[in-house]
Amino acid sequence: MASRNFYFQLIIRVILIALTALGLAFSVAWQKYLALSFCTILFGAQVYALISFINSTNRKIAYFFDAIRNEDFTLRFPERVAIKSFKELNQSLNRVNGLIQEVHLQLQIREQYYQEILKQASIGIMTYNEKGHILFSNPTLEKLLDHSPLNHIKQLMQVDEKLYHVFKDFQPFERKLFQLSNEREQTQLSLKSTPLTLDGKSLLLVVVQDIHKELDEKETESWVRLIRVLTHEIMNTITPIASISDSIIRYYRNHGRITPLEELEESQIKNTLKGLEVIKEQGGNLMDFVQSYRSLLHVPEPNKTIVRGKELLDKIDVLMSARLHDSEVDFQVGCHPEDLEFFIDEKQIAQVLINLAKNALQSVENIEKGKVRIVAGQDGNGTKYIEVQDNGPGIPPEVMDEIFVPFFTTKSEGTGIGLSLSKRVVQLHGGGIQVRSLPNQETIFRLTFV
Description:
Layout: H1 2-30, H2 33-69, H3 84-120, E1 124-129, E2 134-137, H4 139-145, H5 161-168, E3 175-181, E4 186-198, E5 201-210, H6 212-252, E6 253-254, E7 257-258, H7 266-297, E8 305-308, H8 309-321, E9 330-335, E10 341-344, H9 346-364, E11 371-378, E12 384-390, H10 418-428, E13 432-438, E14 442-449
Parallel strand pairs: 9-11
Antiparallel strand pairs: 1-2, 1-5, 3-4, 4-5, 6-7, 8-10, 11-12, 12-14, 13-14
Helix pairs in contact: 1-2, 1-3, 2-3, 6-7, 8-9, 9-10
């Protein structure tokens, strides 16, 4: 309504100026000098009034936007004015000003709410720009780094010079581990970066987490699992030895005295011989078990060379072909791109792939249309990988966390050291091994290399 009244007043003023100009033209044409003087004065006054009318509105709107830009919501325009259009305009501006003020307050409340969440977060959070100026760091981060306040990443040199270079060279979507040491303790930090754009400026958000406690818990859990498996295996071996030894002792000792040779029966001597053979066999099994443990602990450092992925998989294909002689399993290998290269110890990784391929073939040997694939490739992040895939029954969820524990096995035969040894080999290469399994659909062991 205010804009409509303003529009009507503007039209009326323009029409009056046009009529005055027309009268001015007639006065000149008819040489009416008195009328000419009057029309000239009237024309000038109307033009001045029009300019003042427009400027007053423009200034009012300009003041309004300046106040909004400066977050000054105290500006109020008078609503008791004689001109109706000005009154309605002032009312509209005051109403808009009130709405913007309310939105601004709501945004401030939300910002304070989010700031409080970030302050109370259990992980460290930092945001800094390309020049290294820190825009935000929460108290958790300052506590982790034992430095406050943080205004520039150069201050990290006072904490640890290597840590400063980590932040200085951080790339978007990069993950890093850093061990921070001080006089009191060592802290294992996990760092992850995420790029942000704020007001057209590129920022980097870094999340820092102390994973020392989690690593300790994982290590303790791993030891518990290993000890449980070791205890199970050793007890399975020792129990029959103890039982047989006790039976043999009864043959040769009766009521605390040694049985004379003339009282021994032939069957007792035969049973003694059989018992000693069983003890020898169980002792040999225990020695093999210990030897397997030693082989896990003494994996040699890999002798890395440049290996073409296609040639490696072709060798695995040839080595596994003997096992597929009478089998209907569909076994294939593939490398994409074909010129993909790995910096690895070929013998060690080949043995890992053979072990995984054997497990995959065993899992699908009773499956109709069983398939096993070994695929090498490179993902979008540049990480090179080799996958061993099968469509067997899969790995039950309840044992998924146990499969890499040394000597753990669900098979009736085997030492249970294959997967743990494979994982150790890949770790020595600076990589990792992950498993994903969907029952009766697919199981994938993925070897990743840096």
